[in-house]
């Protein structure tokens, strides 16, 4: 009943015309401090050719590294285009940004590439769009490339406020999106749930702490809304953060998850969806911090701690920058 086709790590894959499912390219895998490799994913439904960005910590550098790894080897730049592969992807194939919250490690790539970017929407909860216009695109930190905010508006980016928990179409793609608030050390972050025209779903979580530590029910609400899609085997995958190892005390989590807390949260999803319902669910781990310390890497430790306690049978993935994951329909 809950048999799933597991995601595969690919350099490039060609699909049949009507194949559904999702491709996820990791433009940035780290939750800090490595500039050039900060949280950013490109997501595409196999029902159309265009991508959206899920957070935008690293954009151009992520495109360069991903292109070198062969992530876009099946994409040809039209001969009439004056752009390189990286330029063509940024300007023509990425149709919008989904920003979970305005922390610098989630938006730096978008800001830095903005002078040469094409016009596109920034989709976010209204408080996050307010943060972008007040703190970055304000002619002080950076020119105002937005269509709202301080001073002259260059209007390259259209701030598109998403209402909470309501489906909205994503222009230029076959996707619809539902934004749900998350609690991030008391501040606001966002989960974006994507749905394609076949009803296949993909969920991306921005930074979030566990409900028990945040004293919130934000994650519970997201799990509730996803549970029916788990039951129907329509949830094809999720991206969620694990920033710290289990040894990190709760008071030092600052709105992030550990392996233990992620598994606790996934147990809530299982309890809402039915025993055994998460078996084979593809869970992509993001936001592991780059470490300056010698010894075992945080990634190795987090991977081990997740796998050792993985009684739910979920399928964890730890993509590096430039890696592509394909999620079968
Ligand atoms: Zn953050």
From TrEMBL:
Coiled coil: none annotated. It holds the Pfam family PDEase_II. PROSITE patterns: PDEASE_II. GO terms for biological process: cAMP catabolic process; negative regulation of glucose mediated signaling pathway. GO terms for molecular function: 3',5'-cyclic-AMP phosphodiesterase activity; 3',5'-cyclic-GMP phosphodiesterase activity. Keywords: cAMP, Hydrolase, Signal. Gene3D superfamilies: Ribonuclease Z/Hydroxyacylglutathione hydrolase-like. The keyword ATP-binding does not apply. Residues 1-19 form the signal peptide. InterPro entries: cAMP-PdiesteraseII_CS (IPR024225), Pdiesterase2 (IPR000396), RibonucZ/Hydroxyglut_hydro (IPR036866). It comes from the Bacteria. PANTHER family: 3',5'-CYCLIC-NUCLEOTIDE PHOSPHODIESTERASE 1. Belongs to the cyclic nucleotide phosphodiesterase class-II family. This is 3',5'-cyclic-nucleotide phosphodiesterase. It comes from Enterovibrio coralii.
């Amino acid at each position: 009943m809950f048999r799933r086709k597991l995601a595969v790590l690919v350099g490039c894959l060609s699909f049949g015309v009507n194949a559904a499912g999702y491709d996820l390219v990791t433009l940035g895998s780290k939750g800090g401090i490595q500039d050039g490799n900060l949280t950013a994913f490109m997501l595409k439904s196999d029902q159309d050719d265009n991508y959206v960005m899920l957070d935008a910590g690293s954009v151009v550098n992520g495109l360069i590294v991903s292109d070198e790894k062969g992530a876009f080897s099946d994409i040809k730049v039209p001969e009439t285009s004056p752009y390189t592969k990286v330029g063509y992807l940024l300007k023509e194939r990425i149709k919008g940004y989904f920003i979970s919250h305005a922390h610098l490690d989630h938006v730096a790539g978008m800001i830095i590439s903005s002078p040469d970017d094409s016009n596109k929407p920034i989709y976010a909860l209204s408080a996050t769009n307010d943060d972008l216009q007040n703190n970055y695109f304000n002619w002080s930190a950076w020119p105002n490339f937005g269509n709202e905010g301080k001073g002259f508006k260059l209007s390259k980016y259209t701030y598109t406020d998403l209402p909470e928990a309501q489906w909205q179409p994503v222009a230029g793609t076959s996707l619809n999106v539902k934004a749900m608030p998350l609690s991030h050390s008391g501040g606001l972050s966002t989960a974006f749930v994507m749905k394609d025209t076949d009803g296949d779903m993909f969920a991306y979580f921005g930074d979030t702490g566990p409900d028990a530590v945040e004293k919130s029910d934000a994650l519970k609400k997201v799990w509730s809304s996803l549970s029916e899609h788990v039951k129907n085997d329509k949830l094809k995958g999720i991206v969620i953060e694990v920033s710290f190892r289990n040894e990190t005390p709760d008071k030092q989590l600052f709105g992030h998850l550990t392996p233990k807390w992620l598994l606790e949260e996934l147990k809530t999803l299982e309890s809402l969806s039915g025993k055994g319902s998460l078996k084979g669910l593809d869970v992509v781990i993001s936001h592991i911090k780059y470490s300056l310390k010698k010894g075992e890497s945080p990634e190795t430790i987090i991977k081990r701690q997740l796998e050792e306690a993985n009684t739910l049978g979920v399928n964890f993935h730890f993509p590096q920058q430039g890696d592509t994951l394909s999620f079968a329909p």
